[in-house]
Design goal:
Radius of gyration: 17 Å
Strand order of the largest sheet: 2-3-4-1-13-16-15-14
Distance between the termini: 15 Å
CATH superfamily: 2,3-Dihydroxybiphenyl 1,2-Dioxygenase, domain 1
Organism: Streptomyces olivochromogenes
CATH topology: 2,3-Dihydroxybiphenyl 1,2-Dioxygenase, domain 1
Strand content: 25-35%
CATH class: Alpha Beta
CATH architecture: Roll
Largest sheet: 8 strands, mixed
Pfam families: Glyoxalase_6 (PF18029)
Order of helices and strands: EHEEEEHEEEEHEEEEHEEE
Number of strands: 16
Number of domains: 1
Shape: globular
Protein name: VOC domain-containing protein
């Protein structure tokens, strides 16, 4: 049985503070996570949660993934930006042009995110988190499409995007050039299996698709840490 996207995880220097920031920006409910961490829950029970895990690793360069938040009007975009700044976010420059319609910000832990202008057709009907936008190859887009069994909704000029059959947030990869990976990613995907699933069989399936298994983060034998074809960390929660 295929893994489901359970959470997008942030390695954070101050998990509780970062969770409060994103809870208030997104309007999502705070909750205790399954392993003593803090999480925020989506308004739609079918969506993924966001987990915040303690880490003291310094941030090096831009993250390989960031959220694109959507807007239904120029006023809503301005309101989202103002709310994020009031809560401790900051404006940053990642090379965007003055004529670009999106606004680039960083959360209080330095993680980049964008507030997209109204009228973006690619992110229409996706929800407030329109996309998890990733730096990655076409190969890794194909991998995640097969891993999650989410269809490709974009595959052009080595750029790819997938989306759940139920709609919602897209996951996108921008294609080459892909910056070299430096250290452990601050954002990563956490997959989970139903209680009656065969965890080892699913790990083997992911390996057959191009993932590799590491010997780090095994914990109590429930959590398996893996790398996708671009070397990005992700975890699989096997049934307890």
């Amino acid at each position: 049985m295929t893994s489901q996207l359970f959470a997008i995880c942030f390695n954070a220097t101050r998990p509780s503070d970062l969770a409060r920031f994103w809870s208030r920006v997104l309007g999502w409910e705070l909750a205790d996570g399954p392993d003593g961490d803090v999480a925020i829950l989506p308004p739609d029970t079918g969506g993924f949660r966001i987990r915040f895990l303690p880490s003291q690793e310094p941030k090096i360069g831009q993250n390989r993934a960031h959220f694109d938040l959507t807007s239904t009007s120029p006023e809503e975009q301005q309101q989202t930006v103002a709310r994020a700044l009031e809560l401790g976010g900051t404006h940053i420059d990642v090379g965007q042009l003055p004529e670009d319609g999106h606004v680039v910000l960083a959360d209080p832990d330095g993680n980049e995110f964008c507030v997209i202008e109204a009228g973006n057709k690619f992110l229409a009907d996706t929800g407030f988190i329109g996309a998890l936008a990733c730096d990655g190859t076409q190969e890794v887009g194909y991998f995640w499409s097969e891993a999650l069994r989410w269809p490709l909704v974009w595959d052009q000029d080595q750029e790819t995007a997938i989306q759940s059959p139920n709609g919602g947030t897209k996951i996108t990869w921008g294609g080459p050039p892909v910056a070299p990976k430096t250290g452990t990613n601050r954002l990563y995907l956490e997959l989970a299996l139903p209680a009656d699933a065969d965890g080892e069989a699913e790990v083997d399936r992911l390996i057959s698709l191009g993932a590799t298994r590491t010997d780090i983060g095994e914990g109590d034998g429930v959590r398996v840490l893996m790398l996708d074809p671009d070397g990005n960390e992700f975890s699989v929660q096997r049934p307890r």
